[in-house]
């Protein structure tokens, strides 16, 4: 007997950057034998597809400036998970530990024998936190001089 698939709505603005997120969602569904039908929509299509009669859950990338949307998601009886930002106490979020990412990257390069490292990234808060993990890891390992970030304009 085949049950009706659970409809999971996925919406975010940067499909290329979040391709791995979509891959992770589909892998989770397959590995855990979830009968999910995944509908990928852009921000303009989200409102028309969100709600108890349209989907059984949603994974979104809501922006802090989208206060009305965040309030709607938090009030909704439909389960929602937000990515990358913690925007509301009633809206569960999946967050990255950017500092740990920077430390892990530095530790990996150090394990490969690298002694001099640099961190180049976009100018975002997450990248800034990750970049702080690199000198923290290097400073623990070097006794002669302390590593420091250099910012290019």
CATH homology superfamily of the largest domain: Response regulator
Broad shape: globular
CATH architecture field of the largest domain: 3-Layer(aba) Sandwich
Oligomer: single chain
Ranges where pLDDT stays below 50 over 5 or more residues in a row are 141-145
CATH top level label of the largest domain: Alpha Beta
Number of strands: 5
Stated plainly, the CATH topology of the largest domain is called: Rossmann fold
Secondary structure elements and their pairing?
Blueprint (H helix, E strand, L loop, with lengths): L5 E6 L7 H13 L4 E6 L1 H7 L7 E4 L6 H9 L4 E4 L9 E2 L3 H14 L13 H17 L12
Parallel strand pairs: 1-2, 1-3, 3-4, 4-5
Helix pairs in contact: 4-5
Q: What characteristics describe this protein?
A:
153 residues, Rossmann fold, 2 domains, alpha/beta
Short description:
The chain has 5 helices and 5 strands, in the order E-H-E-H-E-H-E-E-H-H. It is α/β, with parallel strands linked by helices.
Give a verbal description of the structure.
The protein has 153 residues and is an alpha/beta fold. Helices cover 39% and strands 14% of the residues. The protein contains 5 helices and 5 strands; from the N terminus they run E-H-E-H-E-H-E-E-H-H. It has helices spanning 19-31, 43-49, 67-75, 98-111, 125-141, and strands at 6-11, 36-41, 57-60, 80-83, 93-94. It has a 5-stranded parallel β-sheet with strand order 2-1-3-4-5. Helix 1 links the parallel strand 1 (6-11) and strand 2. The longest helix has 17 residues, at 125-141. The radius of gyration is 20 Å and the shape is globular. Mean pLDDT is 77; it is low at 141-145.
């Amino acid at each position: 007997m085949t049950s009706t698939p659970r409809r999971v709505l996925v919406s975010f603005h940067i499909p290329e950057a979040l391709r791995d997120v979509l891959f992770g969602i589909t892998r989770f569904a397959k590995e855990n034998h979830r009968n999910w039908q995944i509908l990928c929509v852009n921000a303009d299509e989200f409102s028309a597809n969100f709600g108890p009669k349209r989907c059984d859950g949603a994974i979104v990338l809501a922006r802090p400036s989208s206060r009305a949307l965040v309030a709607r998601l938090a009030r909704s009886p439909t389960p929602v998970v937000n990515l990358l930002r913690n925007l509301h106490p009633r809206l569960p979020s999946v967050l990255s530990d950017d500092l740990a990412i920077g430390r892990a990257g530095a530790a990996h390069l150090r394990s490969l024998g690298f002694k001099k490292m640099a961190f180049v990234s976009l100018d975002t808060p997450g990248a800034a936190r990750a970049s702080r993990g690199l000198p923290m890891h290097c400073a623990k390992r070097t006794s002669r001089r302390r590593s420091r970030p250099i910012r290019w304009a």
